[in-house]
Amino acid sequence: MNVSGSFCSNFVVWLCLLSCSISTVGVVGQTALQFTGVQRLTNSEIALTLAAPTGLVYRIEASSNASSWNGLVTIPASSAATLQHTDAAAPYLDARFYRAQQVNGTNIFTGDHLTTTNGEVILQPRFHATCVLSWNGVMIYCDPDDSATYDGLAKADLILVTHSHSDHLSVSTIDAVRSSNAVIIASQDVYNQLNAGQKAITRVLGYGGSTNLFGLAVEAVPAYNANHAFGFGNGYVLTIGGKRIFFSGDTGNTSELRQLPNIDVAFLCMNQPFTMTVGEATNAVTGFRPKVVYPYHYRDQSGATTNAAVFKQRLDPGLGIEVRLRKWY
């Protein structure tokens, strides 16, 4: 294959032409940091292996043309000298370039990157339905409950609570993670269960309601099924720098879900008997076609956590939807 590269100080660069074989461009600037493997998997995703000193944090960027680069992921080398990441977008691209760099600083927020017209959003799964986002210094917590851990994270500026079930709402955890200027977005039922201090900083949204704060927009959308009455809880769509991020909360395969417009990233529930079956989740995604899906809230009542992998296997690859499997349990 023909190999070329865009070299940048302090970056290591690897080129992957997806229509051909895979080959290295080389190490630039930092010999201690290097790609040691790029493997095309049977589903055409790309598995990246990066050798790096432990105790540091590294940023991997990706490009389709070696001139315009976007953040892919920031990951810590906490204990292992080998970092691994799977690029699930690769099957839908003609070419892929990768480069990596050490990130300096303390309390660096790690996770997947989403490029917007106004900076990057970094998305970090925590546990089950709990997710934390960072954008331009704004910390966004979705459904912070007492099963997740929050060590080393900056306090929340914006807290989204989808509904009042205990795996989504913890009044004590909200007090533990909120900053002094925090705002809570909640349904009326959640509001009724908050303490007085929390109620004072809460904006209640019903279906179709929206609000703007911290430079972003939040819209409440329907989230209901046989176990969650209509109006009981919310799903949320965040609009940040032109990108739309959806949190399903607990919902069924509803007509409103299937018709959600222009979703860039979807966090979608799938567990029985509480939310959707894998088949229902697949049907919903086929309807609203987000660009990226994170299966979450996928542990069944039996304790099984296989729903996410089965969902990815069953979703038609012809839809061109990237499915990211992350560690939620």
Can you describe this structure?
- With 329 residues, the chain is mainly beta.
- It has two domains: 12-103, Sandwich (Immunoglobulin-like), CATH 2.60.40; 111-323, 4-Layer Sandwich (Metallo-beta-lactamase, Chain A), CATH 3.60.15.
- The chain has six helices and 22 strands.
- The protein has helices at 171-177, 188-193, 196-199, 255-258, 278-288, 307-314, and strands spanning 12-16, 22-26, 34-40, 46-51, 56-63, 70-77, 82-87, 96-103, 111-116, 119-127, 130-135, 138-142, 156-160, 178-186, 202-204, 210-213, 216-225, 228-240, 243-247, 265-269, 292-296, 322-323.
- The strands form three sheets. A twelve-stranded mixed sheet has the order 2-1-8-5-6-9-10-11-12-13-14-15. Strands 16-17-18-19-20-21-22 form a seven-stranded mixed sheet.
- The protein is globular, with a radius of gyration of 20 Å.
- Residues 1-9 and 17-31 have low confidence and may be disordered.
Q: In order across it, which strands form the biggest sheet?
A: 2-1-8-5-6-9-10-11-12-13-14-15
- C-alpha geometry: globular
The name of the CATH topology of the largest domain is Metallo-beta-lactamase, Chain A
**What's the architecture of the largest domain, going by CATH?**
4-Layer Sandwich
Question: Roughly how much helix do the residues carry, as a percent range?
Answer: 10-25%
Distance between the termini: 41 Å
Quick check: average pLDDT? 91
Uncertain regions spanning at least 5 consecutive residues: 1-9, 17-31
CATH superfamily of the largest domain: Ribonuclease Z/Hydroxyacylglutathione hydrolase-like
